[in-house]
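Following up on my earlier thread - several people asked me to post the actual chain instead of describing it. Fair enough. Here it is, all 213 residues.
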Amino acid sequence: MVEKKDLIRLFRPAGWKARLYLRLKLKICPLLALENYIPDRGRIVDLGCGNGLFAFILKLGSPLREIIGLDFDEKKLSLAKKIQLNKPLCQFFLSDLNQLDFPSADIYTLIDVLYLLPPSLQLEILKRCYELLPRGGYILIKEIDTRPRWKYLWNYFQETLSVRIIGFTRGQSFYFRSSNEWASLLKEIGFAVQIVPFHKGYCYSHVLIIGQK
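Reply from S.P.:
Thanks for posting it. Predicted structure:
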């Protein structure tokens, strides 16, 4: 399992703001635990990778993983590249998910991304991933479940601050689904589905939905 201290050391070139973000993110989101559900080898494409945090976690977890991160935000990608300036670990590319122009992969990950996209685009992205995956390939979706209700509502309040008021990331509306709704959608596309709750110990209703082709 990836050690928190290794990530802090990796983020050192990015400055104090990035390191503060890292500490806060690891405290409120089970990113390190999610890494255990990713195969140790293969080509992994992290859609909506932001500053590369989860991509780096995956690479530190196993050097046999080939990691590609895609994001539309040039500033966040610049930070990701700055973090690994002296030791290239992952590949990062500027890409808007709206274009559905993804490289092929053995595994796709979407970590707190889909809730910012309209349902029609969510569906198109998931279908595109299914088309590109080999038989036995995976898609892993980390989202916020609508249950427990109080944790979901707390998250909704926080997201309203960070997205609509502070403008931390792109999005004007939220399109949350319950874990069962995500599972039904993936099954309709053709995936075999597993739901893994991750809300215990957190104030947020984290959930992981795993689809296998």
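Residues 149-165 form the longest helix (17 residues). That should answer part of your original question.
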